[in-house]
Amino acid sequence: MALIGILRNKMGKIVVGAIMVTMVAFIGTDLIGNSSILGGGENPDIGEIAGESISNTQFQNKVDELSYNFAINTGRNPLQQETDQIRNQAWNALILQNAYEKQFEELGITVTNAELVDMVQGSNISPQIRQFFADPQTGQFQKENVTAFLGSLGQAQPQQRNSWIAFEQSLIPSRKLEKYANLFTKTNYVTKYEAKDEYVSQNANATIDYMYVPFLSVSDEEVSVTDAELQSYLDDHESEFQRDETRNMEYVVFDIVPSSLDSSVVANEVADFQQSLANASNDSSFVSINSDDPYPFITYNENNLPASLQGQEVGFVSEPQIVNGAYEFYKLSRIDEVAADSLLYRVAKMKKEFFVSDETINEVYRQADLFAASAGNLEEFRKLAEEQGLNVRTANRISKNAQRVGQMIEARSLVLWLYNDASTGAVSEVKEIGEKYVVAAMTAEQEEGVANLEEVRNQVERKVKNEKKAETIISKLGGLDATDLESMSAAYGEGAKTGTADFQLFSNSITGVGYAPEAIGLAFALEEEEMTQAFAVQDGVIVVKLLAKDIPADVDDYSAYALQVSRQRLGQNAMVADFPLSYFRLFVPRKIDDAVKEFADIEDMRYKFF
After folding, report:
1. Which run of H or of E encompasses 522?
2. How many other CB atoms sit within 10 Å of the CB of residue 502?
3. At what angle do helices 158-169 and 2-33 cross, to 10 degrees?
């Protein structure tokens, strides 16, 4: 019965959360239907999934549900960072509910009552049941544990029995998703010829001689590009420069730190406490009341006694020292002899943290507010920062759901300003982030789609210059009177080099050249001793001569290679949802998840609210 007790105790947390699921769903529906409760009926949408509008209230109900489950299972409310994670879980749950469930309905994917029983206590036990009913001593699952627990439910409270039913129902989405994924994974057919291609790719090898001229051998000064050429290249290669929506900004920080007056106040307090501790009749009571250390009365032995107390008599109080931003000092309260050669030292520890006074906080805010009010635009922001000797920091490519900016972890208020109120050149009001006041200026924005030229200027300029360098090198090589690679390299002069390399068909790099998959593919198309014309690869121009190649003979069984092709198609697993209620996550192959979300045409506007 001990195991059943453990399981009941574990289930207690989950079942309360399960009841809360039902309550939140019922109350949430009532709230949505009763606009007066929400105040005037205004309930803005926070997004759209598969054609279904997601209201702010609907989203918040899901967040509240998961937050409650978190509190039940951990015994505390979530911290800010955990709340951010819960919001992501809530959004994923809504995607599952709206995007995936529509797929399930259209395909007729269901889980019957008989199937659910089989998942809990039959021949195809759910992984969640296996995890939950693992023996706490051995970690092994035994079906008898499930049977014993279910048998004990007859004597359990009605609330617990109903909650177990709710927990069972929470297993259904996992099985539906498994069936949906299996429709693709089990019918993902790889032909013999596809498997053979993979076999050849992994086992074919070649040896070449090459002559190579890297682009770096031609100075940038020898080629010039115009903005029109850069824009033309960007227009012709849009697929290479797709970007998510982002914002750039610069910002200055006003640290909230103790002033010299604050520090002197603490120093005076410490001196008073030092004297008071020396005169205290009950050391443990004194430090328990006055010390900022959570464990102020400590027992040491001779090996770990603080250096300031070594060799001192009972009643000695050490001089205050600053340790990790706080004053610390000790009083040797008592020495106990526990053996002939063993002593225990009872020590009272005083710790006083530095603090920032309201006057200091107000003064730092006044400085930040004056800066923000005086900087009407980006140009004034930069000029004023320079005049005041403030360090201007840069944060680029900030996404709409970002939580941190630079080294600032909880900087959501800045991101909300960037996306809801700011425009290029605008300066923010003062934002309080941790122990800092921050003033920011938006410097640029990148809408979703093709990157702005300024965002990718360096990349595009490098590619355009390399194209021109390739034309120059190929033209020079074409005018040489040379018939072999060595004489071609010598005639070309400085920058050219020759070499020999071995590689397989699936390779994408050549030793001494770098990334050059087109050269590898072309090499396998050559006959032995055949040589190519000069052509461009990623970092230079190359001429290839095939010395030898080996194409593997056919084999009878390509099944291992067919499995590899199948796995490559599906990609790695992606987490669809994460539910704290039942301690499990839902996964499908990433490419399936990507396809479902793409067809769901998801619009995520959470950044407008959180």
Report:
1. helix 517-525
2. 13
3. 70
The reply to whether 289 and 237 lie within a common domain is: no
Identify the domain containing residue 420 by its residue range. Answer: 246-255+361-447
Contact 607, 415 (CB under 8 A): yes
- What distance in Å separates the CA atoms of residue 271 and residue 71, rounded to the nearest whole number? 43
Please check whether residue 195 lies inside any domain of the structure. Answer: no
Contact 212, 499 (CB under 8 A): yes
Residues 267/319, Cβ–Cβ less than 8 Å: no
Q: Are residues 69 and 124 in the same domain?
A: yes
DSSP string, 500-521: EEEEETT--EETTTEE-HHHHH
Helical spans, DSSP H, in 45-171: 56-74, 80-95, 101-107, 113-121, 127-132, 143-152, 158-169
In this structure, what token pair is assigned to residue 56? Answer: 């702010």
Q: What is the pTM of this model?
A: 0.65
C-alpha to C-alpha distance for 32 and 55, rounded to whole angstroms? 9
Tell me, yes or no, whether 441 and 461 share the same domain: no
Which has the closest alpha carbon to 522: 513, 534, 514? 534
Please identify which residue in the block is written with the tokens 């979530």: 78
**Which residues contact residue 22 at a Cβ distance below 8 angstroms, ignoring those fewer than 6 apart?**
166
Q: Is 584 left (phi over 0), alpha (psi -120 to 50) or beta?
A: beta
Q: Residue 26: pLDDT above 50?
A: no
Q: Is 566 helix (H, G, I), strand (E, B) or coil?
A: helix
296 and 436 in a single domain? The answer is no
Single out the residue in 447, 465, 499 at which a domain terminates.
447
- Both tokens of 48, joined, read 């759209």
Quick one: 281 and 179 in the same domain?
no
Average pLDDT on 481-505 reads 93
pLDDT over 50 at 105, yes or no? yes
Alpha-carbon span 243 to 445, nearest angstrom: 11
d(CA 355, CA 259): 9
Which residue has tokens 């509008």? Answer: 53
- What would the pLDDT profile of 307-354 be if each residue is shown by its tens digit? 999 989 999 999 999 988 899 999 999 998 877 678 899 999 999 999
CA dist., res. 529 & res. 545, Å (int): 6
What whole-number distance in Å separates Cα of residue 125 and Cα of residue 131?
10
Give the confidence band of 134 by pLDDT, cuts at 50, 70, 90.
confident
Q: Which of 307, 329, 353 is the last residue of a domain?
A: 353
| 564 within a domain of the structure (yes/no) | no
CA 259 to chain CA centroid, nearest Å: 37
Q: How many CB atoms lie within 10 A of CB 481?
A: 7
Backbone φ and ψ for 538, nearest 5 degrees, come out as -60, -45
Task: Tell me the one-letter amino acid at 21.
Answer: V
What is residue 505's three-state secondary structure? coil
**Which of these, 455, 426, 453, lies nearest to 442 by C-alpha position?**
426
* β-bridge mates for residue 343, sequence order: 337
> CB–CB of 19/13 below 8 Å?
no
> What does the alpha-carbon distance between residue 248 and residue 401 come to, in Å, rounded to a whole number?
14
Provide the terminal-to-terminal Cα distance of the chain, rounded to the nearest Å.
47
Please tell me whether residue 439 adopts helix, strand or coil conformation.
Answer: strand
Helix, strand or coil, per DSSP, at residue 202 = helix
